[in-house]
């Protein structure tokens, strides 16, 4: 009996060793490209690391100086507020809601209709951010499609503008929010489409036969059955939107007058325009903290296991 237990233990240890050997390349890659940069980011946030000047030659540990500077930086507070606004309207109300609506409208439709709508929406998602940024800059320009259509209709509808609107200067945050919704809705649409297709049609038909309205059926049956997908999608889309940089920087550069200066853009300007890498990495930790808070909120308060 003791010999059998010893052989079983030896076999288990042998299996664990083999598993560790097979997984070791993945652990090495994870350490090199994730753990090491993360540790270095935390370390550099407590230094005076810079690209030019005396600080670039004399790297020093400055303790919490960068964080004290952040507490006295009004632009940082403004960037945090702008980031939250951008995430709320672009990710939560925009991509997630629009993705659910499109997926719900496609439910039960024929394959040709679903394929056409799917290709049209996904085409925006697979387009590089920098291309989307330039495309929307032209689209919203003085001679762009939006202004041409509005000024043409304004000849017949007096409540529409009669002259071209400088969208990127008068409504910069609205412009970048709409552009990001247009680009990112496809991810939410595909996630909700898969979840909605898994709901048995018999359940919804039974609710309607019992007298439930279409809205009550959606609210009391459809949404609870895809709650896990909703939370997972909210988490992923929120974290992705928190890090949006290229789209905003291409369209507005954080302007005008800092009106679209979200945390990723402000972090870039401090690190690579002002050459203060230490302060820039400290700002990146604020962005990381906001992402962690969103994640904990979704998982704990919406009571869904991810």
From TrEMBL:
Belongs to the binding-protein-dependent transport system permease family. PROSITE patterns: ABC_TM1. Signal peptide: none annotated. CDD domains: TM_PBP2. This is Sugar ABC transporter permease. Its main location: membrane. It holds the Pfam family BPD_transp_1. It is a multi-pass membrane protein. It comes from Alkalibacterium iburiense. It is found in: Cell membrane. The chain crosses the membrane at residues 21-46, 76-104, 116-139, 165-182, 230-251, 271-299. Residues 81-298 form the ABC transmembrane type-1 domain. Gene3D superfamilies: MetI-like. InterPro entries: MetI-like (IPR000515), MetI-like_sf (IPR035906). It comes from the Bacteria. Keywords: Cell membrane, Membrane, Transmembrane, Transmembrane helix, Transport.
